[in-house]
Amino acid sequence: MTKRAKLLTGLLIFVGFGFVIGNLFRWQIVQGEELRAKAIDQSLQSTTVPAMRGTIYDATGTKVLAQSASVWTVVLEPNYLKDDEELRRTVSSGLAAILEMDEEKIYEKTGESSYFSYLKWRIETNVRDEINEFLKENKIENGVRMIPDYKRYYPYGTVASNVLGFTGSDSQGLEGLERYYDQELRGTAGRLVAAKNAVGTDMPFEYEQYNGAQDGNNLVLTIDETVQSILEKYLAEGIEKYKVKNGAVAIMMNVNTGAVIGLATNPNYDPNDPFTIRDENMLKEIEALPEEKREEATTAAWYKQWRNKAVSDTYYPGSVFKMCTGSMGLEEGVISEESTFTCTGNMIVEGVKDGISCWKHGGHGTETFREGLYNSCNPWFIHLGDMLGPETFCKYREAFGFTEQTGIDLPGESGSLYHDVEDMGPAELATEAFGQNFSITPVQMITACAAVANGGYLVKPHVVDRIVDSEGNIVKTADSGYRRQVISEKTSESITSILQYNAASGTANGGYVSGYRVCGKTGTSEKIAQYNEDRSKGMQYIASYCGYAPAEDPQYALLVFFDEPDGASNGGLTGGNAVAGPIFSKIMGEVLPYLGIEAKYTEEEYENLDLVSPTVTGITLEEAYAQLEAMELDYSVIGVEEDGKAIVTQQIPESGSPVPKGGKVVLYTKEYSEEDVMVEVPDFKGMDIANANYLAGISQVQISLSGAVSDSATVSLQDISAGERVKQGTVITLTFLDNIDTETFVHLD
Question: What's the order of all strands across the beta sheet hosting 664-668?
């Protein structure tokens, strides 16, 4: 029995020790790393310390378009508070008042067993200062901490919002450049590692380890804030004047580098508050819906205002595409500038019922190619498309970049929709030749226009010039080289010559800019697919104007695009020349001087050039009279004259403002009632120069002439709306336009 007992005991000991040794081997060797990691996790608490997101600058490198500023996250250390009831109540009530939080919820947190408990994220500096003052007054040294954090700000509000995008609550880029360059901007987060004791309670902050974050890189854009603001200003004006229902786009590009110096879309939003819908019409539509449908409609409205129409939407380019078709014909040698064709007003095309009309229903008669282009004659370009043939046409369409994305550094770029060569019958070739029946993005069109302008070289559009690290070192620069040559310099020069005449005296004279040799082409494209889906709303149009300047050395191209101008509400204007042309002219007229492009006036242009109102405030009437007479300006006085000794206290037009040659400056020498000096702005729309001058005279206002000024031109736009009240002598800028009905043609069946 003894031997058996010893044997059994030995066996049990052997098995027991074997089991222990086996487990030790498994825990130490087989699962050692895994268990060590779990042990560390149980004994440490790791908190992410956010990196400062990189700053986004405009092209000048000095204007900040997006930046991260310091804010603070409020953290409680309950283990310092939980045993002192009075202290818990003091902290809870004080922080609740400052942070506008529920006092009882804070009180509950102060009773937790922890040295680290989040209370509120991203408070501003003034709130932090209030908390520090509260802690100081109540002599609270432990229990409340504030950890540095960052919040994204956009100092210029809505400016370039659809380009910049915005970030989410976790500082991740959600739209625009913030999304596209998120990895470059976000940096590398740091870590705050806190130790726990044996019972799982956080240790005091003396036992913490802090690993700092690495700040993100900065972006320097090609976008110039001044240019961008001008684009947005006039785009909004066009939407208001022409009652545009579906938004608008304006893109300005350096034709030699592909650098986009301005890209404006409408609707837009404030990236500081991206979830607020700014479009009043959208809000009214949402409010009119049943409550159960409002949430879905609100989400759709958010995405609509965030959407960048310039890169994410496609459209029929319309007649602006004729600059490309014309380039194809000249380059291939199937036509010359003097080749002729006879336009009868309609052209029979296989597969198109009743043929395709020219905008000029009676036809243009026999015309050269030069005349056909600046007359924007559809039949001429149907004829040219037929001479090119599907294979050659498609070859150049691809070469101009219309069959692929441009690769612009913005998210959400759409691809184009077009007919492959094997699917291109006579109807498809005819309509595509003058810009209908295929869809491209606005950024594709401006890129192709740049190639026409710069000698035939296709550039890559981009909005970021360089990426710079937090110490100012350049990390990466944009590729501003050419992708390929599409047409020859000779062809480019020929098209430029035609488009220059077109903007001066042809069907694109709505874009004429005094002092500059502008090249331009209009487009009035039909939204055929939408019309075929629902014909009850009638045909809707996209009015566009695409051109570049100066003709003698092209530098900058501009595309202006209005989606669905409401002809019924603005006197029937839906065409590119009438709607987009004047806005193109206003933008170019303001941007080109800013960019350093020198104006060169003809004698006729110089005669119509405004003067600059001198400074005559603060001096006597007698002295003011002398200055104005020297400039051959008239004057009138509101107030007492005192034999010329009275002091001028105000003048209209103000100092530095435009005043027409031979115009008047109104001088004020006394306090006055608004009613005594205010007049109502008349409606100049549709008037010729003579009638506009007469109406301005009897209305006690003055006019400045802009656009295509000629005896047959009429007013298409005035910068101060009819009915507004202004002071006597105020100068109203009138934009004149000829060929208002250009390119309005019957829809295709």
Answer: 634-638, 664-668, 650-652
d(CA 370, CA 389): 21
pLDDT per residue as tens digits for the range 223-276: 999 999 999 999 999 999 999 999 999 999 999 999 999 999 999 999 999 999
Is the pLDDT score of 42 beyond 60?
no
Per-residue pLDDT tens for 62-92? 999 999 988 888 999 888 888 888 888 999 9
- Domain holding 626, by residue range, is 610-737
Q: Give residue 197's identity as a one-letter amino acid code.
A: N
Report d(CA 236, CA 165) in Å as an integer: 19
Report in angstroms the alpha-carbon separations of 67 from 215, 219, 462, 470, 746: 12, 10, 21, 13, 51
Closest by CA to 144, choosing from 171, 103, 106, 173, is 106
Return the sign of the alpha-carbon dihedral for residues 335, 339, 345, 347: negative
Tokens representing 548 are 């570049």
pLDDT the model gives residue 18: 65
Q: Tokens 């804030």 correspond to what residue?
A: 225
The DSSP-derived string for 165-218 is: --B-TTS-B-SHHHHHTHHHHH-B-EEEEEEB-TTSPBPPGGG-EEE--BPPPE
Which residues, 6+ apart, have CB-to-CB distance to 105 below 8 Å? none
User: Residue 375: CB partners within 8 Å, gap ≥ 6?
Assistant: 360, 364, 367, 506, 507
Please tell me the number of Cα atoms within 13 Å of 600 on its side-chain side: 7
Is residue 643 in some structural domain? Answer: yes
Range of lowest pLDDT (16-30, 343-357, 438-452, 505-519): 16-30
Q: Which of 577, 600, 623 is the last residue of a domain?
A: 600
Q: Residue length, the chain?
A: 749
In a domain, 35, yes or no: yes
**Does residue 6 register a pLDDT over 50?**
yes
Of the listed ranges 205-219, 592-606, 717-731, the least confidently predicted one is 205-219
User: What's the pTM?
Assistant: 0.84
Q: Are residues 394 and 422 in the same domain?
A: yes
666 shares a domain with 533: no
Same domain? For 416 and 554 the reply is yes
At 405 the three-state DSSP class reads coil
Give the count of domains, the chain: 4
Strand ranges in 77-214 using DSSP code E only, listed in sequence order: 117-123, 144-153, 190-195, 209-211
Q: Which of 16-20, 325-329, 459-463, 591-595 has the lowest mean pLDDT?
A: 16-20
Judgement on whether residues 528 and 662 belong to the same structural domain of the protein:
no
Q: Is residue 305 part of a domain?
A: no
Same domain, 489 and 405: yes
Whether 606 has a pLDDT exceeding 70, the answer reads yes
